Structure formats: C-alpha cells, structure tokens
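User: New here, please read:
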Amino acid sequence: MNAALVTEYSKFVRAMVPRATTLLLVLGISLICSAMLLATDTDDPQLAAKLGPLLDPGGWNGYFTLAAQVTAAGGLIGHGAVLSWMFGREFAEGTISGLFALPVSRSTIATAKLAVYLGWSLAVGIALLVTLIISGLVFGLGDIPASAVPAMLRQLVLTLLTGAIAVPAAWAATLGRSVLTGVATAIGLVVLAQVTVVSGAGGWFPIAAPGLWAISGGAEVSATQLALSLTVPAVGAALTWHAWRNLQLDR
C-alpha cells in the first residue's frame, strides 16, 4: 500500500490537471467573491438584488454565504474533474495495461488514488479558507467578528464534503473508461442538486445537502440530513474499489 501511495502521490503532484484545478478552485472562487465585494458600493437596484447575501446580512457572514454558494457548484465540478482525470487517464493514456503487470493489486491502486485525492481536497479546503479570509481583509470587510467564525468553519466543512460527494465521478470514469464520463457525471450531480433545491427537497438529497446547509447557516438542513451526504462517498468509493478489483482488459 505504501508503494502505491508514493507512486500515486508522485504522479499527482507532477501533473498539470491537479495544479490547474487547485488554482481555479482557490483563486477562482476567491476572485469571484472579491469582485462581488467591490460591486457592493452601488446604487443600481438590479445589481444590488444580484449581490444577495453581501448586502443582507452583509459583512463577513454574507461574504461566506456567497462563498458557500460558489463552492457548492464550482467545487463539485472541480473535484469531479480531478477524480475523473486520476481514474480515467489510465485508460486514455493506455497505462492501464501496465498496471496488470505490477505486484500491487488494482484495488490497492484505486484505494491509493482515493487517499491522495482526499488529502488534496483537505489541502484545497484549507487554502481556500485562508485565501477567502485574506481577500476579505484586503477588500475592506474589517476585523473578523466572533459571529463569523461558524460561517468560516462551515466553509471549510463544505469544501471537504463537496470533495467527498464527488467520489462517484471516479466510478463513472472507470466504467466509461474515459475522463469525460467522470466529468459529465460531476456536472450531472450539480444539475440534480440544483433541481432538488428548487423543488424544496434539497435537504434530503445527499448531493445538495452540504451546500444548502452551508448557505442557510444550518437552518434548512438537519444533522441527520447532513450525515446522509456521507453515504455518497462511502458508496462511490466501494463501487470504485469493486470496479478496479474486477477490472478486465478486454472490456
């Protein structure tokens, strides 16, 4: 297992896809929120309506509510893209056949890939939170009040949960033997989450629950509903592990 972890980690840190996605998630989300902050000084009622939480409740809490909205959608696609690349690239680049000659089982390789991915997701969550705080300070939100700390913690948890619920993309990329299959699955999950939130059933849909929980400050999602979101990575990881364990070259 250690050898598989070292190998997958080495491939991961040297690749362009994880690096680019990290920058897009961390800097992209922060820049979007910062740009919205700059736009708050406006007399345009239409623009003010679009700014939403930055004006009501405003301040740090409104800032992190906006960040949660962006993270819930963009974060899922970004995490799904990285997972799709990690598992789909072996087929796209033709390296999958070489894995059958290794003394390490394919299921162990899949487990190592998921472990490296989860470590990366944690690093992204921490980096994004720090960058958001720095951006808020730079663009004039002032000192961070104690009342904003729960919103900051929800932002970190949301990023981690968003990374977790993207795990089915790894299974899809394996079954489809394609990076695009995994990415399409991640996009499909975002669409389903949006539909369930609009219908009012978002709290009971594990894909939508983390984002709705963070955006509403925990008011619209119970602890039980949020805990259900953990079934998604559990089932997704199990299916991915099983698919790699029974992987065949002829199909």
Remarks:
- The CA atoms of residues 185 and 250 lie 24 Å apart.
- The chain has one domain: 2-245.
- The mean pLDDT is 87.
- Residues 59-92 form the longest helix (34 residues).
